[in-house]
Amino acid sequence: MHHFKIVGVVGKRRDPQADGTLLQLLDVLRALGRQIYVEDASLHGHELPAGIERLARKDMGRCDLVIVVGGDGTLLSAARDLAPAGVALLGINQGRLGFMVDVPPAEMREALAAVFAGEYVREQRLLLSTRLLRDRRPPPPPRLAVNDVVIRNQAAIRMLEFETWLDGEFISQHRADGFIVATPTGSTAYALSGGGPVVHPGLDALTLVPICPHTLSDRPIVVSSRQTVRITLRGAPNTVAMYTCDGQTAETLHAGESFEVREADFRLNLVHPRQYSYFNILRSKLHWGRGPALNAQPDAGSDIK
User: Fold this and answer.
1) What is the torsional sign of CA 78, 82, 84, 86?
2) 162-183: pLDDT as tens digits
3) For residue 205, what is the enclosing H or E element?
4) Which of 3, 15, 25, 137 is least crowded, fewest Cβ atoms below 10 Å from its Cβ?
């Protein structure tokens, strides 16, 4: 059985610590007899071993598996670019467990040998597609999000007024600092800090979470991912907000304009070692089930995003 013969490697940019792990990874992949491509933005200033080629990220769709070395943010960026091609992704963390980069560098040789021997778990994660609706200028192309689509005011101190709709049915008017539409993957990111629930990635659901609403009864709700969410910005004509995908790409929204969020037509394919456990990651990242003496404070912001 064919298990990932052509492997792409993507590293966290401008991170010397990642470079050391990347070079180790290339040695492991060569020893395991894989054809290897390294993203052209990775390992700058390093000579690549013989037989390993550089490849632009947009061309990495030819790979069977792309291994991402870094944090969840690096994987989110790679996922948006590579998910449309159906490429499977596996994440190696940089010494700190991520929600999606779940293989520690010390275990990568053993883990990858097992994965290439067919010992792995394949998981499909729901993705979001968002598009701007406006009359005056041509809208930008739809954008993808793995975690969430968020509307926020560009001037953080100003409250927003907006409306939410579901499949054309009016939900509510909101006065809040913003609003999050999150996938199950994103339920443990920004949406969690906004009071949203942890949603198991096996569910086809979206979480709608107001950010610091001015009405305390304005609560998060969970809806089917087969429905389309529309958010319309209200307020004075000069009101400007922005909506971001995974906190990494941004579009400007003016009063009277709307954007739609719906499930993408394809999924993100993740590959995990056989012993992968979603709840083990939650226990570790969210410090579940520990006594008060053991419940060390996490690094500031480490569990959000």
Assistant:
1) negative
2) 999 999 999 999 999 999 999 9
3) strand 205-211
4) 137
Catalytic residue among 19, 72, 102, 177: 72
At 37 the three-state DSSP class reads strand
| DSSP summary character for residue 215 | S
Q: Residue 4: left (phi > 0), alpha (psi -120 to 50), or beta?
A: left
Q: Domain range holding 102?
A: 6-118
pTM for this prediction: 0.91
> What length does the chain have?
305
In the chain, where does DSSP find H-type helix?
16-31, 72-82, 108-116, 190-193, 278-286
Please say whether the beta carbons of 255 and 236 come within 8 A.
yes
In contact, 122 and 131? CB cutoff 8 Å: no
The count of structural domains within the chain is 2
Phi, psi of 84 (to 5 degrees): -60, -30
Q: Considering 57, 86, 118, which residue would you say is the last residue of a domain?
A: 118
What CATH code is carried by the domain that includes residue 211? 2.60.200.30
The predicted-structure confidence for 123-175, as pLDDT tens digits, reads as follows: 999 999 999 998 777 888 899 999 999 999 877 678 999 999 999 999 999 99
Residues 50 and 134 in one domain: no
List Cβ neighbours of 185 (8 Å cut-off, separation of 6 or more).
Answer: 99, 100, 125, 126, 146, 147, 201, 268
Lookup result for tokens 């010397």 = 16
